[in-house]
TrEMBL record:
The lineage of its organism: Eukaryota, Viridiplantae, Streptophyta, Embryophyta, Tracheophyta. The gene is LOC100831811. The keyword Zinc does not apply. It is an enzyme of class 6 (ligase). This is 4-coumarate--CoA ligase. It catalyses: (E)-4-coumarate + ATP + CoA = (E)-4-coumaroyl-CoA + AMP + diphosphate; (E)-4-coumarate + ATP + H(+) = (E)-4-coumaroyl-AMP + diphosphate; (E)-4-coumaroyl-AMP + CoA = (E)-4-coumaroyl-CoA + AMP + H(+).
């Protein structure tokens, strides 16, 4: 057959950004976004605002492949930048608001961000991060623009630039750069900002587009959904629903803090149909139902479809939330797969099974989303598939267009991650006879606390820095709110003659960790022991430690206060102004997914 050429009429680079002009043309008069009591936009208005912002970015000198970072909760600006930044040809980097200043600075340095948008609540955190860049002699310090509250402006500033000012001054008619190659980068997401060398995951326009469309189909999200943002948009770009809601002409319901009262209120006020969250949110919503004048057995006016990921929800928990009216779909994903890679697609014949059996099936991670060419569980030594018996263990591997382009500036990590035509997830699982995959363990010992990934090795390294610690190991222990939390097993260093300073206790170790890492990483329990269990090769037997940790109870959270230093802005009461997780408002910071 003759080779026919590509033409402008039959070949257009795939990009999720294209969902916005389509939404403007098809759903222009429909509501696109609501926030607070007074903010409501249509898709035509959102399209106009995004074009204006893209115009202003170009005027500030932002060019193709420049990184634009943003530190913000689920507010309108955070949503709009998912379109406006790539419209300008730049790459969007959404920063985890739970990180500390050192981690934020590491991301800004590694990404070489040219522009840094900061929500007013995080001005203190951003200031500290920028100061670290300056003091470390960073070759590039980004321009800073504050995002003030759109519903109730505060007047907080950090420099001269402000988000709404950039939007208002932008020209919506300016000629924006055209995407020539769908392999170009669209976003940059960090798997961990807690080390000196964070891993930056680069998404392509093509991968983001295909991941968005496939997830819409896998979850069966129909037209005109009302989507509640209980999942942070900084987690894999909101599992691609930042773009997906536009594709379906839906409504984005943005809430700054996802407290139980706010969630129930938004559901009732806006007729929410869809939301995403970690399983731990279910517990918090159930516990907070009474406070919202909604009894635990209350029925929602209409079903709310929930996509969840992380540790499999217990059967009893699934039964309770589904009784209220939440229809739950379980998924598995990771940053490197552009969010969800597997989804537990429901089969009609399962509807007639007992509740416990349905919960067991629903808790499995499921089958590959449509953007993947394949997903499997293999023996890493032979690179062959394991038996589909639900028992044979192997590593979960993925292949498809929604897998990341690679890690930014990290060739060693790329070589390790891509092997034999597969992306190696590092997660251990099984394949059931029906083809559904289920995770059994995490080979990298990742702890999932409220959806946040905690590398046990990083916490262990901090513990080893303690002068009185001879040995240490960190594993996950159950937590009533967060699902999992770090538990540290510590071997004190033996006191030598004349050594008056070698001493260690649980409180002192916890305080030591608080000064060296983000608060959600700090161990909630420290167990002092004479020695760690080790195998014949000298490796710590963490299986035994996990068994011991399951029998323990986490220490109660300590209340914290925010200080207000000269030249910085103190966050309002109950808000997180320093990158910490607010222990008094657990729902607000647990909106995430396994490995995301």
């Amino acid at each position: 057959m003759e080779q026919l050429p590509k033409r402008a009429a039959n070949y257009v680079p795939l990009s999720p950004v294209g969902f916005l002009p389509r939404a403007n043309a098809v759903y222009g008069d429909r509501t696109s976004l609501v926030y607070g009591r007074r903010v409501r936009f249509t898709w035509s208005q959102t399209h106009d605002r995004c074009r204006r912002l893209a115009s202003s970015l170009l005027a500030l000198g932002v060019r193709k492949n420049d990184v634009v970072s943003v530190l913000a909760p689920n507010v309108p600006a955070m949503y709009e930048m998912h379109f406006a930044v790539p419209m300008a040809g730049a790459v969007l980097n959404t920063v985890n608001t739970r990180l500390d200043a050192k981690a934020v600075a590491a991301i800004l340095r590694h990404s070489e961000a040219k522009l840094f948008f900061v929500d007013y609540e995080y001005v203190r955190l951003a200031s500290d991060a920028l100061q670290l860049l300056v003091s470390d002699g960073a070759s590039q310090v980004p321009l800073v623009a504050v995002i003030d509250d759109l519903d109730r402006p505060t007047g907080v500033r950090l420099g001269e630039l402000e988000y709404e000012g950039l939007v208002s001054r932008g020209d919506p008619t300016v000629q924006l750069p055209m995407l020539a190659d769908e392999w170009d980068a669209v976003t940059l997401n960090y798997t961990s900002g807690t080390t000196s060398a964070p891993k930056g995951v680069v998404y392509s326009h093509r991968g983001a587009y295909l991941s968005t469309t496939s997830l819409l189909m896998s979850w069966e999200m129909g037209a005109e959904p009302v989507y509640l943002w209980t999942l942070p948009m900084f987690h894999c770009n909101g599992w691609t629903f930042t773009w997906g809601v536009a594709a379906r002409g839906g409504v984005n319901v943005c809430i700054r803090d996802a407290r139980a009262a706010d969630v129930y209120g938004a559901i009732a006020r806006h007729g929410v149909t869809h939301m995403c969250c970690a399983p731990v949110v279910f517990n918090i919503l159930l516990e907070g139902a009474a406070a919202t004048s909604a009894p635990n057995q209350r029925q929602l006016a209409a079903p709310v479809h929930v996509l969840t990921g992380g540790a499999p929800p217990p059967a009893a928990l699934l039964e309770r939330v589904e009784r209220i009216g939440f229809h739950v779909t379980h998924a598995y994903g990771l940053t490197e797969a552009t969010g969800p890679a597997l989804a537990c697609e429901w089969r009609a014949q399962w509807d007639h099974l007992p509740v416990s059996d349905r919960a067991r099936l629903k808790a499995r991670q499921g089958v590959s989303v449509l953007s993947l060419a394949d997903a499997d569980v293999i023996n890493e030594d032979t690179m062959s598939s394991v038996q589909r018996d639900g028992k044979a263990l192997g590593e979960i591997v993925l292949r498809g267009s929604s897998v990341m382009k690679g890690y930014l500036k990290n060739p060693e990590a790329n070589e390790a991650a891509f092997k034999g035509g597969w992306f190696m997830t590092g997660d251990v699982g099984v394949v059931h006879p029906d083809g559904y995959i289920e995770i059994k363990d995490r080979s990298k010992d990742v702890i999932i606390s409220g959806g946040e990934n905690i590398c046990s090795k990083e916490v262990e390294e901090a513990l080893f820095a303690h002068p009185a610690v001879a040995d240490a190991a960190v594993v996950a222990m159950p937590h009533p709110h967060w699902g999992e939390t770090p538990c540290a097993f510590v071997v004190p260093r033996k006191k030598e003659d004349g050594d008056q300073n070698v001493q260690v206790c649980e409180e002192e170790v916890v305080d030591f960790c608080r000064k060296r890492m983000a608060r959600f990483m700090v161990p909630r329990k420290v167990v002092l022991c004479e020695a760690l269990p080790r195998n014949a090769l000298g490796k710590v037997e963490k299986v035994k430690l996990r068994d011991a940790a399951r029998k323990l109870q986490p220490a109660p959270a300590q209340k914290t206060t925010t200080s207000n230093s000269k030249g910085s802005t103190k966050a309002p009461a109950g808000k997180s102004g320093g990158g910490r997780r607010d222990e008094q408002n657990p729902v607000a910071h647990v909106m995430a997914m396994s490995r995301l």
